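Help! Submission page says 'invalid entity' but I think these are all valid:
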Amino acid sequence: MNANPKFIAAAAHVDEAAVQPLPASRKVYVQGSRADLRVPMREISQSDTPASFGAEKNPPIWVYDCSGPYTDPAAKIDIRSGLAPLREKWIEERGDTDRLSGPSSRYGQERLADSKLAELRFNLKRDPRRAKAGANVSQMHYARKGIITPEMEFVSIRENLRRAEYLESLLATGPMGKRLHELMGRQHPGESFGASIPKEVTPEFVRSEVARGRAIIPNNVNHPESEPMAIGRNFLVKINANIGNSAIGSSIAEEVDKMTWAIRWGGDTVMDLSTGKHIHETREWIVRNSPVPIGTVPIYQALEKVDGKAEELTWEIFRDTLIEQAEQGVDYFTIHAGVRLPYIPMTANRMTGIVSRGGSIMAKWCLSHHKESFLYDHFEDICEIMKAYDVAFSLGDGLRPGSIYDANDEAQLSELKTLGELTTLAWKHDVQVMIEGPGHVPMQLIKENMELELEACHEAPFYTLGPLTTDIAPGYDHITSGIGAAQIGWYGTAMLCYVTPKEHLGLPDKDDVKDGIITYKIAAHAADLAKGHPGAQIRDNALSKARFEFRWDDQFNLGLDPDKAKLFHDETLPQEGAKLA
Amino acid sequence: MNANPKFIAAAAHVDEAAVQPLPASRKVYVQGSRADLRVPMREISQSDTPASFGAEKNPPIWVYDCSGPYTDPAAKIDIRSGLAPLREKWIEERGDTDRLSGPSSRYGQERLADSKLAELRFNLKRDPRRAKAGANVSQMHYARKGIITPEMEFVSIRENLRRAEYLESLLATGPMGKRLHELMGRQHPGESFGASIPKEVTPEFVRSEVARGRAIIPNNVNHPESEPMAIGRNFLVKINANIGNSAIGSSIAEEVDKMTWAIRWGGDTVMDLSTGKHIHETREWIVRNSPVPIGTVPIYQALEKVDGKAEELTWEIFRDTLIEQAEQGVDYFTIHAGVRLPYIPMTANRMTGIVSRGGSIMAKWCLSHHKESFLYDHFEDICEIMKAYDVAFSLGDGLRPGSIYDANDEAQLSELKTLGELTTLAWKHDVQVMIEGPGHVPMQLIKENMELELEACHEAPFYTLGPLTTDIAPGYDHITSGIGAAQIGWYGTAMLCYVTPKEHLGLPDKDDVKDGIITYKIAAHAADLAKGHPGAQIRDNALSKARFEFRWDDQFNLGLDPDKAKLFHDETLPQEGAKLA
């Protein structure tokens, strides 16, 4: 594991496993109101129903696709060039940003000037972009001005998944069309706990949700490669995958591979939590090649800059780090500004103290200076940076419980209230916000977390890690937490941060990333079904019909992981005949 | 997979992987009121807290242990002899059974007389036992007469897990004892949805729960090797593992290995769903070597006896099968007596029809004869057999939904009401009953299943398969269903039937069995925590403390799967130093 071959930019290549189309699938693009607004979906084709079951046609279904151009055979993928900047023109047209003449952060300039890094640096041929003086380039700002951006329209098309067209297509399959339409379209009424999901998502609905802060569209003007997506309670539940190297493990190439692997299986956003050397360069490679929003925890890098000594952190170093990362195109920042000095003593009687890395860095800083957190004190200064690039806040839960014992305690809930205050402050600046949540929570206390968040944070999207519903299964925390994630997603959490089997034990490899992703896709989809998200049941219905009719390949292909389903089946019944029987 | 070596009784041997004690664990026995009443638990020892965290002693904790003598190095395991008949004397003392002069079923006699089977037959040296004429040997019968059996006392000790002694032991650890006592003993209040779990389980409490039918202790008088356990809403949530060969896969040896593997990881009961040849002999090997109750679905074997032609089934063949299996020692029978003729047309508009194998066998029989089910018509005759051996009913949900689409439909709920009627009938005979439940159910409909079951079936224990909360993840149905299992366990289900990753795709192998078991142990424990089961949080607290203090080995050993936790950790940080750091 320490035997990473040296990473050389000139030799970088895409993970071949990430660029194969999924079985029986093809990438389709749904055209929006302008020629350059093309929304990707995955079309899964199906075979006909066998004669003994009625010989029906089974039209293809469309599913949400996070994999970007990677699974499109028509796309030329060269990770040395990065993805095409599909939003470039939209950003340009708004006329509220300027091209800088290079990075404006001190650190960004230093790294660019360091010739030792030339060999591994991504060859970015464009300069960063920033809002013109006095301008605010956040999607929330536009939304509040009543502007429907191409990003909002993109999201609306994406969320609808061509469900209306699909159901329509069933009617046209012949004499059985009406029955098929009923069969595929039927869905159990949901229990949405106050969410109000429209039957059809319009661009105006997206705008209004963003305007009132109930959804965010994280897309930095310096990440024009990203395909817009929304995180909000009235949209499909999303999932995030964490990747990132450490001082002892993995390389730039491995992290890029993990990103492309994560999005292949359905990661809606990716957080780069790298802490080793070359954080800056690793991030550049990831952002340039990522079609999904990228989040980071800037304090991790700031800490590296002071050699790991939390007490030496300063606002200036942190500020420079924010600008550095904003100009690379990071779409959301986890900022632990709710870890306030008076809350730290509340953790003294905990079982597991402060387990959030960002939280413990800030707690250490506050205690050693006996001062209020500079993140809290400079919160509006941070907002000024965020709105100049459209970086969204992910307000970190630095005091989240690290054990069942510590769940829903005073420290956690005090911080949550502060996150609510900060939300109001960020919204004053039209900066997009989501709120991070726990952690380790037994099932009977999960609902309280969601209710308190909605109330304290004025319905800003909740973004939770798990929660893990028990502490007794190291090695299986994707499952202890998947149970909690499904529930909190049902109650209203907008995005679920995955947990892999390696949680608490080590860094995830590609297999762990996939296990985490699939588990969380299950949780998110189970939540969509339970909320009664319109059309969520279509895929379940299609797969169940395939199962009932012994269309084995269709059953595999409609599932979240066709490869594993087929493998498992073939272990017992390898003959082709058995799949058609 | 078809290359099974021929099974020879004389050469049969235990799976070596099943007889190793778990790391840092030893088998202890808690003495009851009589010398031969010794209740097994697993004691997990812990290292001291490192000096930097306070150098405390961490007393051992006791956990529930389903593995029987296998993990006891003092036990001599020879699967050719079977386990010691620890309940033999208790049964004998009651004086209400007779030894028969051999099997009384026709089929049992035929198999015994078949010399071709000699080579693979388990060499059972004792004759079956049956209630004396007019006697009723069910635990429910004793309970209703006010008798506390040794089985009930065993259960009470087992359920308490020495929690009081453990908490007491903390006080004695020295100056920090009081704090440690508070830390380990603290637990969040539960939400029990009407369960009433006592702080300490007394033998009288067990008796009263069995008497009113709210719990069962499945232990056939012909399975004296079994260690008594209870299934009921006011006890710890239990899990069942399904094993069983088919015409095309696995051998007797593999199935015995799966059983010993399943109980090692925490299977509370095991169902033998074998359908291939040698069903009778396979079952004998499993029962003789199982310390946990064994369940079966007798209709599967009855069908084999009529060469798979459902319409040729008769009450006489089925009756003979019940007696055959009861005399082997099967502890509970799944009987699909609720699949009544009038309900079958209700499945016509389903997505996936009747997916229960037992349900579809009976539906076929009913339709081909256009007659009411012989299981329903002969239900009281079945009760007479059950009470003569103390076999418990697991009233099968033959009309359970096989897809999200079919969840909670008329067919399913009609059958449930009939299961309630049959429960009343069985209770008239003092026969123990649990009720099987679905299946495939989206989260928002799970609670309704539990509530309807409690009402219709008068609080008889609910025993559910999953439920699977979405259909879209073949290959991961342990997870789609673990999410549902945790929830329904929380709401009041007494036993969760595991689902393995191979569900819908093929027969589980040993790895799948373990994945299914661990997932369901997580679900059951998460449910215990959420219900507020007294003391359930001790293990979470102990593990979290070990985690916080970087006692890596203790963290692994306190978990459900120490082997995997250690392996995952060592992949990233293999050095011994990293485990103590």
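Support: the input was valid. A stray whitespace character was the problem, and the output above is from the cleaned input. The first strand of chain B starts at residue 25 and ends at 31.
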